[in-house]
Predict the structure.
Amino acid sequence: MAIVLILGVMGCSTGERVDLGDEASNNLIAAIAGEPDQLDPHKTTAYFSFQVLENVYDTLVEPDANLQMRPALAESWDVSPDQLTWTFHLRRGVQFHDGSPFTADDVVYSYRRIIDEQLANVDKFSAVTEVRALDESTVAIRVEQPTPNLLTNLGGFKGMAIVARKNVESGQIATHPIGTGPFAFASQRSGDSIVLKANPGYWAGAPKVSGVTFRFISQPSTALSALQAGEIDWTDSIPTQRVAQLQGDDSITLAVTPSNDYWYLALNQAREPWNDVRVRQAIAYGIDRDAIVAATSYGTATANQLAIPKGNPWHVDYNRYSYDIEKARDLLRQADASPQSLDMLVTTEYPETVTAAQIIADNLAPLGITVNIRTVDFATWLDQQNTGNFDMLMMGWLGNIDPDDFYYAQHHTNGTSNAQKYSNAVVDRLLDAARVETNRDTRMQMYTKAATIIADECSYIYLYNPSVIQAWSTSLTGYEVRRDGAIRFRDADLTRGDV
């Protein structure tokens, strides 16, 4: 599935620092581009919700800055020799924000809630057959087959948070969440802000700031102005066209970090002539990735010919498709194909797809191909994709960590997101084997081979990896931008004077 970033709709004008009472007077003030739809981590799929919830909840394990899974509420774990039972040893003495103790029963309740109610992240438990508490501080998870990405599934993001049963049963979790994280929910002003307060008893150490106030500022230019004026301390709402200029601005700290997200083109292989690999390869040689990157992200993204970016431990070097019109022409001649038109499906809700389509239309014109850009709303885009009503489409995949997330659903013959109808028996065997392979080196070899075939045969024509772009005040220290986009303020500190 493609995880969709919900567009911000709430505005907030700049001015003096927001006054939300004594409890928030010395808080770190962070501007995000929209208001969370709700704060139940098991039900929301909104990016803005998870920006807040990252600081309220914990998971059993969590990714570090290099996206390697590390202990969190589970301080250690064991795997049985047959790889079918995972035993997690929980931290003792952890409390929820209301003072109630955290135990193995909370883990079982949280996971059974997602499974039994078929909530947003139930697919993460597709291989799980049993979750049970062995004692107050030990949980056993049984899987039907070796599942090397189980840790990533359990801790990759806060949608798998451990929640408090009475918070759920009281019906308050969506508006007043209670977690075990570094900050506790304090208050919310609809259309304006959410206030969190520091959790002094946090198991990893009390935060250095008194709390965090999330303000909702939908316009990037407004958020940037507020940061430069000292009205906020942090924002990830930065106009990409300003990035080059801001890199020389000593009054703020700017971070541009490659993400794990990627954007791609897909040609419909259920239609001629796109079912011919040589025609798809001709299109891959016929597009100018650098021009697309420059136009869609003002150069802040990184052109890439595979899904996984450099810096990720699963990255594979691949550079087959240079921008080469003559090579494209030759491939079309070899295929005895001369397509006159191409129906390209894009959506107004992701304007980069429209911008890229215009460049692609110019790129393919020398090949005698007229690109008919069909611009629709996202709901229509999804329907057209699912019914196969397109020649080519452009979209992005967001939030992946494990290589299985990058390849299986998209490129396996029976993949749930294989809208382009790609099918290769060798790739299927590799992807099936890799998702149950527990030897890391062997698994890497399998994914390297599968990814190379996928790119060679243009199941997707990969375009670029966008960057995570954030900026903060020079008085804010201890904060690090992450390639998974997680906003963690647990180690942040502020040295600014009172305002």
Q: What stands out?
A: The first strand starts at residue 28 and ends at 32. The chain has a mean pLDDT of 91. Residues 306 and 451 are 7 Å apart (CA to CA). DSSP finds 14 helices and 21 strands in the chain.
